[in-house]
Structures are given as C-alpha cells and as structure tokens.
Amino acid sequence: MSQAGGSPAETWQANVVGLLNLAEAVIAGAPGSTLLFASSGEVYGRAFLAGTALDERTVPMPANTYARTKLAGERLLADVLPAAGIRSVALRPFNHIGPGQDERFVVASFACQIARIEAGLSEPVLEVGDLSARRDFLDVGDVVAAYAAVIRRTDDFETASIFNVGSGRARPISELLDGLRERARVPFEIRIATDRLRPSEIPTASGDASALTRATGWQPRIALANSLARILDEARTRIQS
Predict the structure, then answer these.
(1) For residue range 93-107, what is the model confidence (pLDDT) as tens digits?
(2) pTM exceeds 0.90, yes or no
(3) CA 63 to chain centre
(4) Domain extents for the chain?
(5) 7 and 66 Cβ atoms separated by less than 8 Å
(6) Which ranges carry the NAD(P)-binding domain (predicted)?
(7) According to CATH, what is the number of the domain 8-240?
(8) CA nearest 110: which of 194, 190, 203?
C-alpha cells in the first residue's frame, strides 16, 4: 500500500485541514451543491487481510498516515456538509494505471525501465521489488468514467454516500510485469533490487464496486492488455524526448 510523501504532520495538514478549508468555502459560496471527494481504497487497510474483495459495508482499518487522513476526510465532510444543506459523495478508488504516471508507481517504473533498455540507455536488466502482492488495478480512463457517472447522478444519492471504484479482481504485480515483457522489443533480465523490496503487510487488496454499478451503471471497460500497451508506448515517447 502506498504512503503519502513528506511528514505525517504535512499529510494531515494537506488532507484534513486543507479539506476543511475547502468545505467551508463550498458552504459559503455554493449552497445546495454536491461535493465529490476523492478518498481511497486504502482506507480499508488491515481489513484486506480477509482476502476477499471488500465492499462499503466493511469497517475501515487504515494502516498508514495517508489512509487515516482520507478516512478522516470522509468523516469530516459527512459531519460538516449535511448541516449546511450540501450533499457529499466519497469515492474510494483503487490502484490507477495509465500513460504518463510518475515512475514512483510500479507499472510506470517497469514501463520506463523497459523503454530505456530498448533505447540502449540501460543494461538489459529490469529491477523489481516484491512481485507477489496482489492489487486491484484500474485504467485511469475507467476511473475518470466512474467519476463522470457519479457526477451525472449526484441528485439520486443519499447525503454522505460512499462508493468503491475498483474491478473486484486482485492481480499479482508479476502479471502486469509479464504483460509488459510480452510487449518489449528486446529481451531483458529481471533482478530483485533490495532497495525496491518492501514486502507489504497487505498481500491482497481489492474492492467490490457493485454498489456503484447498481447506482450508475458504471463498470470497468478497458482491458488490461490495452492499458499496458498504451503505458509502454507513452514511456517510449517519454524516454526519447
């Protein structure tokens, strides 16, 4: 599971105090509106140890600072906005992938390493960390479509609604690496790098988004193979520029 950058105090300041400031501005300037809050599937934390795709009825057990601040943000909005006549909808998206993602994220890291190897800028060795962790990956296009589907239906939701945005499938990171390797133009070795090896306390994490599907008709539509092809093509362009 990811961690927010900076110190815990900075994360709380940005994700909770900053959110409160935004909520106050909405109350003052946009009465009767709806605030769509991008929370995170990470709020479930240690509840993922159940090993199944979790739905919104699961009690969150956040395991890091970022996740704790996101859950606090959900509760803050549910407490502050309804009294002012403003509806809030919290979305809990799971892992995004897509072209242009920062190399700090695992799939972008793999793709950019492959692009450098293909261009002759690196030796034919791809460094990896823990490949056994299983995560719920969605193409960013599907995530954006989920947000748009919710925006179109906000008048239909209860105040302080919460929806997961996920595929319901936990894929091992090794599966995504295999998909990229199949599309590589040159062979390469895979090497475990100790500085990348951060075994997770959460071996499997996925979210059941059937509530969102029932409410809006949304469901993931972009195949993983298409996502990986686009990610690798963009990485090649990025490395060559």
Answers:
(1) 999 999 999 999 999
(2) yes
(3) 15
(4) 8-240
(5) no
(6) 7-227
(7) 3.40.50.720
(8) 190
